[in-house]
Amino acid sequence: NVWNQLRKVPHGKTVTYAQVAEKIGSPRAARAVGGACGANPIPLFIPCHRVIGADGNLCGFGGGGVSVKRKLLALEGIK
Questions:
Q1: Which range marks the domain in which residue 55 is found?
Q2: Which of 15, 16, 21, 63 falls between 20 and 30 A from 28, CA-CA?
Q3: Predicted confidence band at 62 (pLDDT cuts at 50, 70, 90)?
Q4: CATH for 49
């Protein structure tokens, strides 16, 4: 499950949508991972803010938008 996998991403680290898809055994499901992140009802407990685009850019964040995602990552020491 996507959310269980996201809970394993350590504080201060990021993963791509494709990496999460690979870890859950569905390597072609990066978009579905994005959909699951967008449906996350508890974004601080299931850290979707740690998921980034394949190019390293920040993508949407259902917990308040990219600006909030950027701030959460900065609090974890990620620039």
A1: 2-75
A2: 63
A3: confident
A4: 1.10.10.10
Catalytic, 37? Answer no
Q: What pLDDT was estimated at residue 79?
A: 84
Tens digits of residue pLDDT in 30-46: 999 999 999 999 988 99
SS3 of the chain: CHHHHHCCCCCCCCEEHHHHHHHCCCCCCHHHHHHHHHCCCCCCCCCHHHEECCCCCCCCCCCCCHHHHHHHHHHCCCC
Exactly one of 6, 29, 48, 51 is catalytic; which is it?
48
Overall domain count for the chain: 1
